[in-house]
From TrEMBL, chain A:
CDD domains assigned: RNAP_II_RPB11
Subcellular location: Nucleus
Record PANTHER family: DNA-DIRECTED RNA POLYMERASE I,II,III, DNA-DIRECTED RNA POLYMERASE II SUBUNIT RPB11
Keywords on record: Coiled coil, DNA-directed RNA polymerase, Nucleus, Transcription
Gene from which the chain derives: NRPB11
Record-given protein name: DNA-directed RNA polymerases II, IV and V subunit 11
TrEMBL record, chain B:
UniProt organism field: Datura stramonium
Keywords: DNA-directed RNA polymerase, Transcription
One Pfam family linked to the record: RNA_pol_A_bac
InterPro entries: DNA-dir_RNA_pol_30-40kDasu_CS, DNA-dir_RNA_pol_insert, DNA-dir_RNA_pol_RpoA/D/Rpb3, RBP11-like, RNAP_Rpo3/Rpb3/RPAC1, RNApol_insert_sf, Rpo3/RPB3_RNA_Pol_subunit
Protein name per UniProt: 45 kDa subunit of RNA polymerase II
Domain DNA-directed RNA polymerase RpoA/D/Rpb3-type positions: 21-299
Encoding gene (name): RPB3
Matching SUPFAM superfamilies: Insert subdomain of RNA polymerase alpha subunit, RBP11-like subunits of RNA polymerase
SMART domains: RPOLD
Protein's UniProt keywords contain Transcription: yes
């Protein structure tokens, strides 16, 4: 009866920002990113990519509640970088990794479909 | 300021490809990427499925909603889905979800006129679009007689019973409803690395070696018939059950066998419902993940707002 609509899980409501950013008021170079209508799929890959970044001191995400369709991503960096810079870098690196993966996969597939 | 790149360069090796099944190795990346691809294949790669049913006549033994539910679950060929519009984003029909850009129309009109029970199947669904039709599961290579393959049974009719309806199929994702999931199963496992301490193995009698080999519930090890040595015949049969390790321990030989999961190597198996080809499902998953990443990029106004905040902050700090 009062269950939320299924599309609530992946459609960003009008007037709501997909990603919002909030600086930490107490810790230098720390911030929380709120990503609307995303889950572990995005949260975990971004977190793991941030862990590869030497200037990142902390990166973690949480899905606060299964019926709150958003994730919180917290990043703290050294003074050499900033949370925003690290976040952008992580997304760029992941994007390039997927481009590479797609090329690899297509190349392999061409080899296999030739003799198939 | 541009930071250093920490990009990875994954490698792929395909072992087997069939229309609705494939097996491949993914290397030089981590579990987060492997799992993201798996999750997306199951829940976020779009397909087309029946979403609205208008029943004109139904004198069958199944009620209207029961039949509607069954129709929704029939896999439809969905190569077009990636380039199709979601009804909710369609401007052409303004949310109606019944125009040619965001929907496909089906008709089903069957009546039983004989004493023989009539099977109503997915093959009786008439599509308005020849690219979106119920998946054909008759396989020439399966060896079964194709003439008896009638598709997926929807309902059975006796003499005089009739089913007449119109159905609208729409694009959707598995996250919305499982009927839109193109995946039958998608799994990945860490590639195991099995090391046998040969010196220690030499101290075992043939009987003990056999016991060790038998201790694994899956056939990972065997005894070489030539030199009676324990060999690894199928490392991937290992289910990370620890049984051989416990056995070695119990025999008082810890370290006899060591097994590690390689943290950057994965073996994927992908099976689809037939809505899209298995290989296409993987490629679509990569595209969907790229689109998702693009959607979570920071917008310019967020960056600007922070720049101002930064100046203000510096000002307040006396900078
Ligand atoms: Zn439309």
């Amino acid at each position: 009866m009062n269950a939320p609509d299924r599309y609530e899980r992946f459609v960003v409501p009008e007037g709501v920002k997909k990603v919002s950013y909030e600086r930490d008021t107490k810790i230098m170079n720390a911030a929380t990113f709120t990503v609307e209508r995303e889950d572990h799929t995005i949260g975990n890959i971004v977190r793991m990519q941030l862990h590869r970044d030497d200037s990142v001191l902390f990166a973690g995400y949480k899905l606060p509640h299964p019926l709150q369709y958003k994730i919180l991503l917290r990043i703290q960096t050294t003074s050499q970088s900033s949370p925003m810079q690290a976040y952008n870098q992580a997304i760029n690196d992941l994007d390039k990794e997927l481009d590479h993966l797609k090329n690899q996969f297509e190349g392999e597939l061409a080899k296999h479909t030739r003799d198939y | 300021m541009e930071g250093a790149s920490y990009q990875r360069f994954p490698r792929v090796k395909i072992r087997e490809v069939k229309d609705d099944y494939m097996k491949f190795e993914l290397r030089d990346t981590d579990a987060s990427i492997a799992n993201a691809l798996r999750r997306i294949m199951i829940a976020e790669v779009p397909t087309i499925a029946i979403d609205l049913v208008e029943i004109e006549v139904n004198s069958s033994v199944l009620n209207d909603e029961f039949i509607s539910h069954r129709l929704g679950l029939i896999p439809l060929t969905s190569e077009r889905a990636m380039s199709m519009r979601f009804s909710r984003d369609c401007d052409a029909c303004d949310g109606d979800g019944q125009c040619e850009y965001c929907s496909v129309e089906f008709y089903l009109r069957v009546k039983c006129l004989s004493d023989q029970t009539l099977d109503v199947t997915s093959k009786d669904l008439l599509s308005s679009d020849h690219t979106v039709v119920p998946v054909d599961y008759s396989d020439a290579s399966s060896g079964f007689d194709n003439s008896t393959n009638k598709g997926i049974i929807i309902v059975k009719l006796r003499r005089g019973q009739e089913l007449r309806l119109r159905a609208i199929a729409r694009k959707g994702i598995g996250k919305d409803h499982a009927k839109w999931s193109p995946a039958a199963t998608v799994t990945f496992m860490y590639e195991p690395e099995i090391y046998i301490n040969e010196d220690m193995m030499e101290t075992l009698s043939l009987e003990e070696k056999k016991e060790l080999v038998e201790s694994s519930p899956t056939k990972v090890f065997d005894i070489d018939p030539e030199n009676k040595q324990v060999i690894v015949v199928d490392p991937e049969a290992y289910t990370y059950d620890d049984e051989v390790l416990k056995k070695a321990e119990a025999m008082g030989k810890p370290g006899l066998v060591e097994i590690h999961a390689k943290e950057d190597s994965f073996i994927f198996t992908v099976e689809t419902t037939g809505a899209v080809k298995a290989s296409q499902l993987v490629l679509n998953a990569i595209d969907v993940l790229k689109q998702k990443l693009d959607a979570v990029r920071l917008s310019d106004d967020t960056v600007e707002a922070d720049d101002q905040f930064g100046e203000l902050g510096a000002h307040m700090r006396g900078g």
